[in-house]
Design brief:
146 residues, single chain, 434 Repressor (Amino-terminal Domain), 7 helices, mainly alpha
């Protein structure tokens, strides 16, 4: 859809760096199967409208770094898609890249993989919700301890 002309000669502002990476994210998610935002919402333990705001370049709300790995995992981003998105994300949030307590990508706190045996539920939606709840529980405990 072509852009609408500016009203009365007023030029709309250029999209900022947050809008730039959110446009990339929106494009990648739009190419995924229907229901992807709902799946992300369940995994993050948030409402679908929250995910819509995260992926809409119009909203200036940044995407929290703690949600990126979950989004990448749920959407099965390719290495090239991750690289492209993270380049734009780092441009918008350079302080995150300078954080010495971050991993090589400069965006996520260091993590240790811990295997946990969990029951397999019949309902896939409930299964994702359970896994998300465990993930959030561990992240919240870690935040409290620090």
């Amino acid at each position: 859809m072509p852009a609408r002309p500016a009203a009365r000669g007023i030029k709309p502002p250029e999209p900022g760096p947050i809008a730039a990476y959110k446009a990339i994210l929106k494009d990648y998610i739009d190419r995924r199967p229907a229901g992807m935002r709902a799946r992300i919402a369940i995994a993050l333990g948030k409402h679908k409208s929250f995910v819509s705001q995260l992926t809409n370049p119009i909203y200036p709300m940044p995407v929290p770094a703690r949600h990126l790995s979950t989004i990448f995992e749920i959407c099965h981003f390719s290495a090239e898609e991750r690289k492209s998105f993270l380049k734009a994300y780092t441009a918008a949030h350079p302080a995150r890249a300078a954080n010495p307590d971050s991993d090589a990508e400069g965006l996520h706190p260091r993590r240790k993989v811990l295997s946990l045996e969990m029951p397999v539920l019949r309902d896939q939606r409930k299964q994702r919700a359970l896994e998300s709840l465990v993930r959030q529980f561990v992240e919240r405990i870690a935040e409290l301890i620090e």
